[in-house]
Design goal:
single chain, alpha/beta, ornithine cyclodeaminase, domain 1, Rossmann fold, 2 domains, seven-stranded parallel sheet, 9 helices, 27% strand, globular
Length: 351
């Protein structure tokens, strides 16, 4: 996590200084004619001038939406022989050759949590000791060590709907970090004692209520829908990850129209294949970005009483370029991985 924080902070500063370039995420949707599942091909990329490297991150997913406790949740199905498909490809900007290929899963969770933690370093109270977390899955498991890396967390409260999951999660975090972790039966029981409150769920609707935000709290999420408008408006200071707040969606049946939607579940279920109207930008889109905070273009927390908020609203290719470069350098220095002949991926004819 220490490496993740350092590499990401450097990359965001390079982006602010225009020494890096980032392409927005693109999602390609192909509904299944036999089932409610949907195939999604997701990609994003970025290049860093200093590392002389470009990263392409892609996912080949089977997605399923379902209702749970009155909320719509989104699941990735491990349909490829019981596993998922996500890759990071690294290329040299010096001669164009491919450098590495590796799964994206661990880097994916680390970059989200590290981005949240970088924001918390500037926005959470210096004496913050209690962490509340909603969710007990893959992303939640990275956010606890990430927050512990930027604040001296003494106690963690975790809520998720399934009792066995939150209890297992609490035991894992205690073993891993040595921090007392309590599973709680209601989400508000994780929120009320928290100095830092994290939503790391797969819910597409609000999970943090505005009345839970006491003076001095810092709140964050892995998608803005977990907070909702009224909760975000309760914050005195808001920082967002990026003003490019929506993926560029292309959906089978809509031709080559670019569809603006955070999650196009309703479009996929609709028989109307006319392109919808452009999405109205959310009110918080004018707020400063994380790179502005890290380069001191805007200030962090100004008082002990402020309610601060970081909206981790969309993934960026720059995260995979930064952490992918770090993974590649560490792997080559330690001799980890399998050497693949570069010639396998080169061609002798003019493309």
């Amino acid at each position: 996590m220490k490496t993740c924080l350092a590499c990401l902070e450097k990359a965001y500063k390079e982006l602010a200084e225009r020494r890096a370039v980032n392409r927005p995420r693109t999602d390609l949707y192909i509904p299944s004619p036999e089932s409610p599942d949907v195939y999604v091909f997701k990609s994003m990329e970025a290049g860093l001038l200093d590392s002389r490297m470009v990263a392409l991150r892609l996912n080949s997913d089977i997605i399923r939406w379902r209702e749970r406790e009155g909320k719509t949740v989104k699941e990735k199905i491990p349909a490829a022989r019981g596993k998922w498909v996500g890759l990071i490809l690294l290329f040299s900007t010096q001669n164009g050759e491919p450098l590495a290929i590796f799964p994206d899963g661990v880097v994916q969770r680390m970059r989200v949590a590290a981005s949240s933690a970088l924001a918390a370093r500037y926005l959470a109270r210096g004496g913050a000791q209690t962490l509340g977390i909603l969710g007990s899955g893959w992303q939640a498991g990275a956010h606890v060590p990430a927050m512990c890396a930027v604040r001296k967390i003494a106690e963690v409260y975790v809520y998720s709907p399934t009792q066995a999951n939150r209890e297992d999660f609490a035991q894992q975090m205690e073993r891993k970090l040595g921090v007392r972790t309590r599973p709680v039966a209601r989400p508000e029981d994780a929120a009320y004692p928290a100095d830092i409150l994290v939503a790391a769920t797969n819910s597409l609707s609000r999970v943090i209520l505005p009345e839970w935000l006491k003076p001095g709290i810092h709140v964050t999420c892995v998608k803005d829908s977990e907070l909702g408008e009224t909760t975000i408006r309760k914050a005195d200071r808001v920082i967002i990850h990026s003003r490019k707040f929506l993926p560029e969606n292309y959906i089978l049946g809509f031709g080559d129209e670019k569809i603006e939607a955070q999650d196009p579940i309703n479009l996929l279920r609709s028989e109307d294949k006319s392109a919808p109207a452009a999405v109205k930008p959310p009110f918080w889109l004018a707020e400063p970005e994380l790179k502005d905070l890290l380069t001191d273009k805007v200030s962090g927390r100004r008082s002990e009483e402020e309610v601060t908020c970081f909206i981790n609203n969309v993934g960026l290719g720059i995260q995979f370029a930064a952490l992918g470069s770090a993974v590649y350098k560490e792997a080559t220095s330690k001799g980890i991985g399998r050497e693949i002949p570069t010639d396998w991926f080169l061609e002798s004819v003019h493309p």
